[in-house]
Amino acid sequence: MDNVSGTRPLCLVTGAGRGIGAAIARRVALAGSPVIVAARSQDDCVAVANELVRRGGRAWPAYVDVTDPATLDEALLELSDEIAEHGGIAWLVNNAGIAETAPFLRHGRGGDGDTYEKHLRVNFHGPRRAIERLAPSMLERGHGRIVSVASSAGLIGYPYAAAYVASKHALVGYTRCAALELEGKGVTMNLVAPHYVDSPMTDQTVERIVKKTGRSAADTRAFLAAQNPGGALVTTDEVSAVVLELLNGAQNGVIAEMPGGSAGGKPAVNWRT
Ligand SMILES: NC(=O)c1ccc[n+]([C@@H]2O[C@H](COP(=O)([O-])OP(=O)(O)OC[C@H]3O[C@@H](n4cnc5c(N)ncnc54)[C@H](OP(=O)(O)O)[C@@H]3O)[C@@H](O)[C@H]2O)c1
After folding, report:
1. CB-neighbour burial class of residue 184 (10 A; exposed 0-12, middle 13-18, buried 19+)
2. What's the pLDDT score for residue 110?
3. Which one of 160, 166, 218, 243 is most buried, counting C-beta atoms within 10 A?
4. How far apart are CA 98 and CA 92, in angstroms?
5. What is the distance in A from the centroid of ligand 1 to the CA of 6?
């Protein structure tokens, strides 16, 4: 789908320096859309953006800390020529996220502040603030696509993950309401909710479990895969394919729950609202 200006929609992906976000940036760029590759670690963002340019895409790295709205303003200012050339940012993918584990009564007592607040700041207020910054101009233009990467943790509970689960539930509840208000306005808001994904975040989870239990990394990875209803870890490529489908489509207010594994040669997806 082309923009009003006749160019492919410009897409901003947060947390695009590695893992799921990098896969989304890759998928979107190789499908022909220019991409702003945003995160805090600039080495990662530059590496992803350079790779995409080498492969024939258009991409720019950007320093964005989703907990600090000023950094998004600065990135938008720095890239204002590119943004104007493409008629604005038409696609926003809220992917940046963190996940830490602890017993629910000890979550609030981490050395670097309250873990519940920390997760809400990144996983909920981060997407909310990016939406508040970018949705008004999408609404003015009468076109926009917003996809947030939630998690199965936005739909069900997991032991020792109360802060993460609470923040993802907040994102899901917020999106459900906002999508209802956006109905018929040309701007859609949808969610992907993968179960465990094979990404650096899951590598960290594996490391933590290995340290605590003495289990081998391979056993731990197999254990996590077995927790997924589909019996396999979701891949970052599978998530990126579903995100691109939502960016290209007209659905609004849907949740693409990804249980792992495939169905009919495609990544398994339970479409829900
Ligand atoms: N892995 C899973 O099993 C799984 C399952 C379901 C959903 N998810 C969700 O998918 C998303 C991506 O996860 P992933 O597995 O790809 O994680 P990851 O490998 O740890 O990557 C997370 C990305 O988010 C960025 N990020 C973290 N805090 C940020 C901040 N304050 N501002 C801007 N960027 C920030 C990181 O870069 P910097 O640190 O450089 O900023 C990194 O690029 C997250 O929202 C996660 O909750 C993951």
Report:
1. exposed
2. 59
3. 243
4. 19
5. 32
Q: Among 147, 148, 149, 152, which Cα is nearest to 230's?
A: 152
What the chain holds in terms of domains, given with CATH numbers, is 10-272 (3.40.50.720)
CB 45 less than 6 A from any atom of ligand 1: no
Span from the CA of 96 to the centroid of ligand 1 (angstroms): 4
In angstroms, the CA 224 to CA 240 distance is: 21
Tokens of 188: 């859609």
What is the dihedral sign for C-alpha 216, 218, 224, 227? negative
- Decide: 65 and 71 in contact? Cβ < 8 Å: yes
Spatial distance between the Cα atoms of 172 and 148, rounded to a whole number of angstroms: 9
Q: What is the pLDDT of residues 95-118, one digit of tens each?
A: 999 999 999 998 886 566 799 999
Which stretches of the chain drop beneath a pLDDT of 50? 1, 4
Cβ 193 vs Cβ 151: under 8 Å: yes
**Is 63 noted as a catalytic residue in this protein?**
no
